[in-house]
Write a structure and sequence with these properties.
By secondary structure, the chain is an alpha+beta fold. It has five domains: about 1-40 and about 315-485, Multidrug efflux transporter AcrB transmembrane fold (Up-down Bundle), CATH 1.20.1640.10; about 65-110 and about 255-305, 2-Layer Sandwich (Alpha-Beta Plaits); about 120-250, Helix Hairpins (Orthogonal Bundle); about 555-640, 2-Layer Sandwich (Alpha-Beta Plaits), CATH 3.30.70; about 640-845, Multidrug efflux transporter AcrB transmembrane domain (Multidrug efflux transporter AcrB transmembrane fold). It is about 65% helix and about 5% strand. The chain has a four-stranded antiparallel sheet with strand order 2-3-1-4, sandwiched between helices. A hairpin with a 5-residue loop joins strand 7 (about 590-595) and strand 8. Helix 22 runs antiparallel to helix 23 (about 760-785). The protein is elongated. The chain starts with a helix and ends with a helix. Keywords: Cell membrane, Coiled coil, Membrane, Transmembrane, Transmembrane helix. This is SSD domain-containing protein. Pfam families: MMPL (PF03176).
Amino acid sequence: MAELLYRLGKLSARRAWVVILTWVLVLGAAGVGFAVGFKGLATSFDVPGTASGEVTDTLAEELPDYAGASGTVVYSSTDGEPFTDAQREAISELAADATDLPQVADVIDPFDAQQELDDARQEIVDGREQIADARTELDDGQEQLDAALEQLEAGQTQLDDGQAQLDDGRAQLDAARAQAEAAGAPPQQLAAIDAQLAQLDAQQAELDAQQAQLDAGRDEIADQQQQIDDGRVELEEQAELLEQGAELLALSEGIGVVSEDGATALVNISYEVSLLELETESKVATAEFFEASPIEGTEMGLSTTIAQTVPSLVGIGEIVGLIIAAIVLLVMLGTAIAASLPIITALVGVAIAVLGSMAFSGVVDMSSVTPVLGIMLGLAVGIDYALFIVNRHRKQLLEGADLHESIGLANGTAGNAVVFAGSTVIVALLALNVTGIPFLGLMGTVGAFAVLVAVLIATSLIPALLGLIGMRVLSRKARAAVGTVHHEDTAAKPMGNWRAVLTMLGTIVALLVVAIPSLSMRVGLPDGSSEPEGSPGYVAHELTAAAFGEGANGPLLVTAELPGGQDDAEQLQAQLDVATVISEQDSVVAVAPIAISDDGTLAAFQVVPAEGPNSVSTDQLVRDLRELPPVNGEYALGVAGQAAINIDISENLNDALPLYLTVVVGLSLLIMIVVFRSLLVPLIATGGFILSLFATYGATVAVFQWGWGAELIGLHATGPILSFLPVILVGILFGLAMDYQLFLASGMREAYVHGAPARLAVMQGFRAGRSVVTAAGLIMISVFGGFIFAESVMIRSIGFGLAIGILLDAFVVRMLLMPAIMHLLGRSAWWLPKWLDRIIPNVDVEGAALERRHHADGSPSNEDEGEGEADAPEADAADSSEARA
């Protein structure tokens, strides 16, 4: 590899314009690809297979109206007084007109919705009054019916008495007639008796008629009683339904769209598609529509669903970071033209990587953070890698090397180290794909691509530019001293044992102390409170929290599975049962049923927690709801919403982190064993990385979660750490940490292989690499630190984590802890079992064999390329044997 890069460096220097033109064409192709393929970036994240995702999918099938994205536009009167009629009318008109915006499914007029809610409450009051009146009427009817029945029973008693008298009279007449007939009474006497009997029959007929009337009255009373009884049953059913509705309405107290003081209103907007499918243009169109029509006397805010668009890729902070990097380069390299090369080539590489990556945004869902990560890494490693090569080239020129020969050697030595260092970063970033989380894998892939482009540019475009500027890479004073400068280090002395012990213990203790806050790390996704002060998203969050409570900024969506086949009363009872159980959970402010699917198998509820989606209480509420057994033994619950999504993404990332860490650390150990031909050096290098990683976590938690020193970076709100930040930091910081390990430890190994005592070799290697590693570390800290002041809190936390991570790893672990431990280990640091030494390849990362080969008989700069390359294999073999010896 070193020989190949040597040839590439010399060829690039001699064919500079061809190389430059090639990269210009590549840049142009990336620009064309971007113009054709760029379809926008997403501002949300999706992790497939999560519990909240399953709930959302179920809603999409059963209740599609509630599966789409939603957002709110918040209006509040500036004087704190209720809205005027004119203001209410203006808000309602905007709500009505907004239905024509792209991808908008529905817009709810807050005043109509509040009126409906007030009407529902009034209906409960009126319904109770009507039921009370109906009960009174039924009671009055029952009293009248009871009175009529009493009269009927009194008439029946009289009729029964008359019937008894008639029966007695008939019996007496029948007995008298029988006696008369027995006594042979004359016919006249018998006729008189018969006449009396006839009178009794007439009376009997009257009694029978009266009985028929009484029976008819009794039947009528029975019918009326049945009507009253039926009416009472129906009334009780209605009363029960009314009370169920009243209980549900009472449970939903706290959910509203117009505040109690009438000074704040929420315009709810629902979209036709999910949040992932919601186009940025649609959100921008919504925001611009409301912002274009300000209402006098009101303040307006937009929820993050609408306001959170793609952040600007470059801001003032990033420019300041580049300026600081340029100053470091100027101090390190001595001339403006030399200092400008790393920055120019890094910018070219970033442009190619980012434009090329975003060209595929129409094929894959790419989050807005993804290209920003590419910019961060592209700038940082692009500048550093170019610096390594330019710095090596300058040293060789000062020692009197031929220009093209020096470029070739710099590319074959420092460039070889750059290729290896870049490879470790690329491997670490590509390993993010093993997490199984698409957006994270894509971020790693784009970052790896940016690093790959940086490596290719550093080993081709940098030599070409060095060939063009020639000796102007040195200052005039330096050019006058060419050939008289020698970089041999004769002043190096091993550090003292006590110094090594104290340094080791001090750095370990310091890193552990800084890591303490990581024990309380909470992860999540940012909400409106973390948006820049005065931004629409922040204003909406604060106005909503002030008028409706913190929980209104992140309501939960809870679903309940119903058996189906239930009538309206059974469905209402099921909703009440579920809502009651939910309301009994801690931190629940209000619960409201919002829909039941057409087949009656799914009910949806809106749940407002006491605090926002990133709070500990809301996090616990989601977990409690998910752990509840099915309500009544049959209604299983599901939970979605921002808090649920935060939990799901965080848990998936936490599950993926051990595997990812194992893969990355395992690969690192193998690679470093090959590079350093040692077992202990890779182990202590990895241990140092883990220390710096957790110290980075601790510092990030202290600032972004605890708020320590947050005001120094303009952070006005604290909250959970970005959910995927811990994983991202592992990949990036590991790769970069191994870069610094390589540039320092390889120099130590080179000195040791060339016969220096082990402890002296540690100091010689450290002194040889410290200046360039210091400059490289400062450059990376400057570049990453520039993103701390970005608009997006996600980008700010990534920039801070990377900047503090480089600070701790490069300056504490690599430049303090590692040399101290290497000193204490002495020769054992380079121990390697003989059987392992025989089977692993000999990797000359620094290209030392190449350098010796091309300086063995003097500079070959005046020789033809073919002659200079003829005996390379033999030289390689000799150097390999020497290194093994």
